[in-house]
Write a structure and sequence with these properties.
2 copies of one chain form a homodimer. By secondary structure, the first copy, chain A, is an alpha/beta fold. Chain A contains 13 helices and 12 strands. Chain A binds a DNA duplex through α2 and α4.
DNA sequence: TTCGCCCATGTAACCGGTTACGCTGTGAAC
DNA sequence: GTTCACAGCGTAACCGGTTACATGGGCGAA
């Protein structure tokens, strides 16, 4: 691979001149510049980004550290980030923390010298630990995580208000005995959604200890909740799952037990995964614009990189939108799946 | 941020010794090593990966250049790659070519000096162009692309045989007038699938010019095909869409026109997106294990990085599996969505 | 004609690590 | 008591760029 010195030698100039010519800085005559460019072409020279970033102290790259997320959520968030990053000529270095705390530290450490800033989503990490890992000198924006005391900017989804709104809607739709299927215990999103549910039940319907079934965001745990509901004779006229995946499993489980949705029991989810509108009946849910989460965070990071100082005060909270569909008796059959004339 | 020299000074040793101690190389006494490590801890030293890779000529990073892919396909392929990369301590640098040829060149060029190898998926790029862009010295594995003359290793899906098999299955299932909805004209996958369809129709059923409707892999184009079918009075007892997305749109469109699936017409797709099994009736399709595409490619790249020489001869071809479900009259209602007792 | 200024270009230091090589001192072998 | 091998450590070159500063030539002003 040709280096800058090769180019300089070929063009009969010094490395400094070659560098200036290539980077379009001033103080280079047209003919010299042409000679350098000819050499570049001839030798197929491509600047070595690693070396360049060493002196410039800029890598034009942002590190993205996500938990072990699969599926739509993962790809949407990346897409949102990439959309903005690409416009600013930034690259994305992916780091996956694969669950363990130790890996998180490693992932963050590995970023030093490779990135100009960090986008981190540590759903179940304690703020103190995070503070240890993060380099205070490295601009960082948190995804869906309010680190409170750390004073780091973040973008988050208002899970509490979303859950509150959905619970309210279920109650308004005539439900009295609403059961919640919770997400993983240590997961912040899950906890906030549960809080929203509990508060709404209390304030809107005056119910103090609403029924809550355990879950872990997986389809299977939704199905498990269905059998608990049916076998346990738990009275319920509506079930609000903490995410769509569980709602899907729940619906399948209820159907197996002969329960009709929304006839016997209404069902609602959270997230609005693409599958939601294709189910039959289609799934009512809270729509979270995941790509916006990514793009907003990236825009904040760019602002910091441009010199602005952003703290947790400049956080952005995205409010999810209520999408009423078939499983709560909303729109029964939408254009997308009128395949079946069902019960 | 502390540098190695800071650590060396703090520990009272030379940079060389500090470096050796930190990297666990030999020739360092236990006490010296301890002193260095203490300094590391005290100064919060984290090695600057950029500088390190400059001398080592190794970045422990692979560049992944994908087209503008959204959704499941994107995340699955990344997941497959990451799974293998992570095991080998490799990082992923994402490059998106966002459609244009020019961007592809830029994306590849930007990788120089940042990565040890490249994973590229250039679905609609001419091999000659690709050759111009790629650095022959940089180990490269192509995703879902046979560059033929270029002698680059690649991992691909056998779209031809997949389409052939599905067409065969439709015919075996009693269909006579099978219509194909094609993908984008310039897309290789789409072309191969179309070829498989045409050949199967010819060889198995003796039909020379089977009906083919245009499409572009989008749900909308599937819906459009549905109205063409219905309005155009095109006789069809089965429709084979070049991908699942179009099949989904097609099914919705057919339903709107009052056609029942699979009663009036069977439908088949390609890819086995997660949605496929949740439709009602569930969608018959060719299952492509997208994550395998990524992980296999990454494994090949690792072999090259370890010194092996791999050419196009060592390509891996993944054969999709036929999944017969409801839309071809296979399994009518599966456990996942027996919500409806439909026509 | 001479002075001074500015522009084009070259020299070399530097970014933060790694590592070839050289130096020193110790213990074993003679 | 030498000699020699080798372990432990330091010096400095190097990776491939960028850029502060030095240099020299051309040109306008006096």
């Amino acid at each position: 691979m040709a280096t800058l010195r090769d180019v300089a030698r070929e063009a009969g100039v010094s490395v400094a001149t070659a560098s200036r010519a290539i980077n379009g800085l001033g103080n280079v005559t047209a003919p010299t510049k042409a000679a350098v460019m000819a050499a570049v072409k001839k030798l197929n020279f491509v600047p070595h980004s690693g070396a360049r970033s060493l002196t410039r102290k800029k890598t034009d790259t942002v590190g993205v550290i996500l938990p072990d997320l699969f599926g739509e959520f993962f790809s949407e968030i990346i897409r949102g980030i990439d959309l903005v990053a690409h416009e600013s000529g930034m690259h994305l270095l992916l780091g996956n923390m694969h669950g363990s705390t130790h890996e998180t530290a490693a992932a963050i450490a590995a970023m030093r010298g490779r990135v100009d800033g960090l986008l981190v989503m540590p759903p179940d990490l304690k703020p103190e630990l995070l503070a240890d890992y993060l380099d205070p000198a490295l601009p960082t924006v948190l995804l869906n995580y309010d680190a409170g005391s750390l004073d780091l900017p973040f973008v988050a989804v208002d899970n509490y208000r979303g859950a509150y709104a959905m619970t309210e809607a279920l109650l308004a739709g005539g439900a009295r005995q609403v059961v919640h299927i919770a997400g993983p215990k240590h997961n912040r999103d899950a906890r906030d959604r549960q809080r929203g549910f509990v508060d709404a039940m209390n304030r809107v319907a005056g119910i103090r200890n609403p029924a809550i079934l355990p879950g872990d965001f997986s389809e299977e745990s939704g199905a498990k909740a269905a059998s608990l509901l049916v076998q346990g004779q738990l009275p319920a006229d509506a079930v609000f799952a903490a995410n769509d995946q569980m709602a899907v499993g729940l619906i399948a489980g209820l159907a197996k037990a002969g329960k009709s949705v929304p006839g016997d029991v209404m069902v609602a989810g959270f997230d609005d995964i693409p599958l939601a509108r294709h189910l039959n009946p289609s799934l009512s849910t809270m729509q979270v614009k995941i790509d916006q989460l990514g793009s907003t965070a990236m825009m904040m990071l760019l602002r910091i990189l441009r010199g602005e100082t952003l703290g947790s005060a400049s956080a952005t909270i995205l409010t999810p939108a209520l999408i009423a569909r078939g499983t709560t008796g909303g729109a029964r059959a939408t254009a997308a799946q009128p395949m079946t004339a069902n019960s």
